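Readers of this paper often ask what the protein records in our data store actually look like. This encoding replaces a full spatial description with a residue-level series of whole-number codes. For reference, a complete record is included directly beneath this paragraph.
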Amino acid sequence: MTEYVYDFTEGDRGMADLLGNKGANLAEMTRLGLPVPRGFTITTEACRVFLSTGRPPPELEGQLAEHLAALERAAGKRLGQADDPLLVSVRSGARVSMPGMMETILDVGLNDHSVLGLAATSGREQFAWDSYRRLVQMFGTTVMGVDSALFEETLARIREQHHVPDDSRLDVCDLVRIVETFKDLIAERTGRRFPHPASEQLRQAVLAVFTSWNGERARVYRRREHIPDDLGTAATVQTMVFGNLGRDSGSGVAFTRDPATGAAGMYGDYLPGAQGEDVVSGVRNTLPVQELAALDPVSFAQLRQYMDRLEGHYRDLCDIEFTIERGTLWMLQTRVGKRTAQAAFTMASDMADEGLITSRQALTRVDGGQLAQLMFPRFDTTGTADVLVRGVPASPGAAVGAVVFDSAEAVRRADAGEKVVLVRNETTAADLPGMIAAQAVLTARGGKTSHAAVVARGMGTVCVCGAEDMIVDARARCLVAAGSTVGEGSVVSVDGSEGVVRLGALPLVESDVMRHFDGAVPRDGAARESVRPVHRLMREADAARRLRVRANADTPQDAARARRYGAEGIGLCRTEHMLLGDRRRLVEDVILARNDAERGAALGALLPLQRADLTGILEAMDGLPVTIRLLDPPLHEFLPDLTELAVRVALRDAAGDSPDAQDTALLAAVTRTHEENPMLGLRGVRLGLVVPGLLAMQVRAIAEAVAERRRAGGTPCAEIMVPLVAAVEELRLVADEVARVLAAVSAESGMDIACPVGTMIELPRAALTAGELARDAEFFSFGTNDLTQTTWGFSRDDVEGAFFPAYLERGVFQASPFETIDRDGVGRLVRIAVAEGRAARPGLEIGVCGEHGGDPASVRFFHEAGLDYVSCSPFRVPVARLEAGRAAVLGGAPAPAAESARDSGSAGDSGSARSAG
């Protein structure tokens, strides 16, 4: 028989797939002997059965009753017992932490009778009725589906009548009236009564937790975080302990290090006389957890001891929830804490220094997405306007946007292309769509452990919380601070690192990390401290990685920048980018040429320009490989728009003016070269074979640039890449022409000019016939942008805005295949081409030059597939370096990589580039 329920004493943290993150960690703390209230966990497997069939597993009812009976025996009282009730919480807990995205129900077991027993045994009638109020409110919302706003309106109205700031100030009579009002509201809205039998409350609460896995906010969060939909959630049932029993009680959330900066020391929030949800919701402003030392020194000392033990045990940042009930400390949860990008790098480096983890383990604690965040610009605050509001710096970064006051408006404006800042008194899980849409989140209440802070940190969104001097009027759609009224749509600048907000859009400057990669010396101690862990972990990544990292660069300036960022060559130099601007007219002359002489003259004019550009790029990358792609786009892209030309010619004709000879000739050329689907038309290798002289001109420009660099004492390493090859015969024809031109330039210059000739693999046929191509190609480079288009049958420009949002929403794919490699389709073609190419030509060098080369998840795939290098935009080179190192440490055995003379020839160069971290 399948076991669907596990006592906390029966599990450990290695069972997170079955018990969820929360259940596994509660079991681990129990195993360590920490003071954890007794309880049990209903497994994710039970949830999956319920979600797939609509009914819980048949065995669950009996197993639940058995474990509840054991819990009652240990407590010496029964669930819902009238004179002294056992009360429990029912909480969600998936394999991957999803803070606030699913349901929690507290105080299960209270009813009209047991509330009197709780009042008698606790000696606090107000506490008992407040607990009952919480249960009815939570149960009505999460289990019975009543709009939470209806409950909040009732509470707000009564608070206003009595002029009290929060629910804790309401008296017993008020709370009794609220409970009855809430029960009436449930009956009115649902046609059902709030259930009084405690066992029925528990049953419905467990099923509500399971159902919440497919709730809207949970699904939105999973899409945002790329969490699979089929995991399901566990449900933990735990004996209640109460932080709202008076000043000797309270609840808190604490981190073993600062999750915003990574600094060592205890960080968190504590709220006397409160339950846990009061802390994380942000409805009441909290105290720094250090103030617990004065309020309850014994509990504080115990908490520090337990936190040190947990961090040493988990060897990572621990996020801890605790409650103190009348001077007794209880540990309610721990998990590996979410952190900002800066904190991730600082903690990983510091923990390695402390010997808590190894340097290689430190590399697994950071990722390329976090590094990219640290490379983003920051605000230039010199000479700026006064601060509008100050708060808690909950999630760092710089963001500018228009102020909005609800989630729906944030989504609406963001969908229209506007950048927004979501402003709330406090956020709840219902605000998640708006938080995803916003550039930054600003709240009037809450601290570093509030809902807004935790979720924003996890998403890498800028956040300032607890701006107590700010008054938010959501109905009037404005905020008031520093004597100013800021209406919806006003632009503000939010600095999540400093915790300040200013009116207007502040200018941006390079981040300290970006300046470091550019070779600048840190300006001050703070800058040095932010750069130090990045420098250390980049060195570790460079030492660990097997994949080399090149850059996509088309100008000497981009090439030089890429080299400073650690690039070990150029994997894609697009020659068509050298033919734009003023040079476009020369391409028009090539297309409009009426005979070979005119075409030759036009190509002759282009030759020195292309040669000069290539010479500059080879100089910037001296000693490192530069892969130069021959002309790829269709020629009509260099011509004016067909409609625009036709209108211009027609207007002259209608006005009786004589036609413009150039416009007429261009219109004829555009009409002649027009294609219905140019992406699959006359482009790439086909251009070189069809347009006389074009291929020879480009190859000559490359060869002469190589000769010029050699005469200057350089060591140019040019490689010629042929785009869009589908058949080996195409490649052979081009290779023959390349050999002829190289021989001619060699004879003219008196030097042996030899450039390897390879091909891009960007068509399914090329991947499937890679064995044939490898007999003639000296290297492969995957053009994964076009390979994705031709494998999926997508035109990227058309589909990304048309139906990709619907595909992501409906789970056709977890991420756009243009952002992260499609392992099953495009990835399989890559693996086939690697295997067959190297079988035909052992040691074949293989790289990738699509933007997938800078995507963290894709870099790991390319490592596993056995590629030799990835190539990406200069800005993403550090990200690719880091991810290549992480891929080597995390594992995933790569296919045999190339070991050719060309590899060994660049080994010294790659070593010098690797010192740039």
